[in-house]
What does this fold into?
Amino acid sequence: MATHFRIAPLGDSAVTLQLLCPPNSESIRKFIRMRNVMLGSVGVRDIVVAYDSITVFFDLALLTESGVHHAMTRMSGLIEKAFSDIAASEEITIPVLKRIPVCYHASFGLDIDLIAQQHGLSHKEVIELHYSRRYTVFMVGFLPGFPYLGFVDDRIATPRRTTPRQVVSQGSVGIADSQTGIYPLESPGGWNIIGRTPVKLFDPINSYPVDILPGDEIEFYPISIDDFHRQTS
Amino acid sequence: MSIQIIKSGICDTVQDQGRFGYALAGVNPGGVADIIACNLANALCGNDKNAAILELHFPASEIIFQRTTLISITGADFSPHVDGFPIGMYRPVVVPAGSQLVFRRRLAGMRTYLAVDGGIDVPLWLGSASTSVKAHVGGFRGRKLQQADMISLGISKLRMATPVVMQARWSTQFNGVYEKRVLSYIQGPESDRIDCNLEDISFRLKPESDRMALHLDHLKIPCTKHQMFSSAVTSGTMQLLPSGEAIILMADHQTTGGYPRIANIISSDLPSLAQMSPGDTFRLKCVTVEEAEKSLISIQRKLAKTCAAVRLRVQKDYEVH
It folds into this structure.
């Protein structure tokens, strides 16, 4: 893992460590391990992992009460130590592979044609290029459970729509630049939609409401529209 | 025992201190926009700071109380009246069963807080009563309050009933946090992407500002590089949009963002921001982390001390022991 990083405050109650090189599946899993190590520390309120950065949110009042006089200095030290400990460690995390069914039927793949035209491909080629590789979850954000996966084949990488849609259906699978992602809830959105999954990515009834998290690996597989309806009934 | 919404407000939700520990899953903290008003409101009802309360914007809900209730109203002044009588803010007020609360006009500020004795009673989601409107969960049925809603209140410890509104003659105040027009900020992680000095710019709040972000009107800020990987953001983060306009993220911010973070308003200045209205102007002042920490610790200490004293007095004067 690269040893080049920088640490910067994010306001007075959070500190972020950012890699100075592009993220990959190994770096994101090391961030997850850093998070696991730091979560139990006094004053740590939450930790976000996203692409090339990890951010620790802390409770200044709690830290002050426990005798810490310079909270930002203390938390910067914490994050730096976690980084070097994990970097030095020989431990390897086996990624969790999750397979997600996607129906690429034309009624769901609203922008397949746009992507095909832009890149001079057939619809079939666009679809195959999408499901034929393993992706890493680099971030879950924007909405609870919305996974940002990297990186799609260059031949289907497409910028966001200039005008976002007012309504994108729950389960929609999309492409934005070299990322692919899934809308866990109905929402406005600017991603290029190529299909829909019957899988529920966000369920508030569960004690942990989201199943797919940064560091996971994802493979999509195509299902028919009949299978889709069977799974959502 | 409940309160009933007789008439809908424009944006009224159940909130508390927010929901922490789930940001990795994209679950944002939410919670009240003005933590000082919230904590004081709770203390004035004898509640712990974590009790759920109502955050109301203007025009606000009209509310009927089904039981004798000890209430307090803090934050913005929306000219509260109970059964036609004006009631003072920042003090404990006992309202009789069947009384009706209305907010007549917006005199100052942006959101007002209504706390009740026993707290607002809603099922917790991930340990918090805060409403996540986007995810349709948390608070009262995961949405803004609407006409005919019946919202449960916690168990009352009041040892009095009254046929008329009874207001305390004393009130509490908390000076030095609101109506700041020069807000302090810490450099953001992408501060090096702008050439200009943020302290030279005058910012004005646009009407589209809401719980998610303040939208600002100002001389465009040029940026050397817009592209970046998405990363974490927080309340007070100032993002620079591709248009050259800046926004400041507020209580309902998402967990991550893809725009350059050019500044972070310090935590102790967030209550001022929370009470700014469209048309208000402000300027910025760059401070060190140490200065921001010192300011926050000082405010937190003062708030905790004030709340503890108020809570004790209210419990003594109004509650069954």
